[in-house]
């Protein structure tokens, strides 16, 4: 006898009830972050803050603000978010190793700084424009849109369209159209005119017939 296998009904899993104060999207230093992410992971989403610097910044925030780096961002209050922003915009004034800062010995101020988000984009743009005006080698490469750091450009970094391939395709299409055209038909628009042949030679004139001998 074959025994019937009874199906075991799975009990529905109850979702954890979120607190009323939980927010799905949180804005940290001008960057929208999902509220489900931890504080340390969300810091690395900010432009100008990498994985290592995010760990250092999270430890500073924990010491100064008593916020756990593993806490969810969506559970933080507005006041806590504002204080975190102040820390992120003044990282160079905190106990951060110098090699983690992105503006060491700044060109304008001569001091060690760290900029993030739109400030970082503005500073990078100014650096490129300064090189262009100085007409240095890097500025020369930036001007023509080429690679700057000594990379090879044989295969990659090409700009523009492959004009030679398009010309070959157009010429081949025009040649097929001319070959398929009927004799006497008008040439297609844009087709190259047919090469003129040599003029036909005239046939030699026929000799006059010999006169018949007169009868005596």
UniProtKB/TrEMBL annotation:
Region: Disordered, residue numbers: 180-216
Pfam family, one: Ribosomal_S13
Gene Ontology BP, a term: translation
GO molecular function: rRNA binding; structural constituent of ribosome
Membrane spanning residue stretches: none
InterPro entries: Rbsml_uS13_C, Ribosomal_uS13, Ribosomal_uS13-like_H2TH, Ribosomal_uS13_CS
GO cellular component: cytosol; small ribosomal subunit
Keywords: Ribonucleoprotein, Ribosomal protein, RNA-binding, rRNA-binding
Quaternary structure note: Part of the 30S ribosomal subunit. Forms a loose heterodimer with protein S19. Forms two bridges to the 50S subunit in the 70S ribosome.
NCBIfam families: PRK04053.1 (NF003140)
PANTHER family: 30S RIBOSOMAL PROTEIN S13/40S RIBOSOMAL PROTEIN S18 (PTHR10871), SMALL RIBOSOMAL SUBUNIT PROTEIN US13 (PTHR10871:SF3)
Function according to Swiss-Prot or TrEMBL: Located at the top of the head of the 30S subunit, it contacts several helices of the 16S rRNA. In the 70S ribosome it contacts the 23S rRNA (bridge B1a) and protein L5 of the 50S subunit (bridge B1b), connecting the 2 subunits; these bridges are implicated in subunit movement.
HAMAP family found in the cross-reference section: Ribosomal_uS13
Family: Belongs to the universal ribosomal protein uS13 family.
Name the UniProt record assigns to this protein: Small ribosomal subunit protein uS13
Lineage, uppermost ranks: Archaea, Candidatus Micrarchaeota, Candidatus Micrarchaeia, Candidatus Anstonellales, Candidatus Bilamarchaeaceae
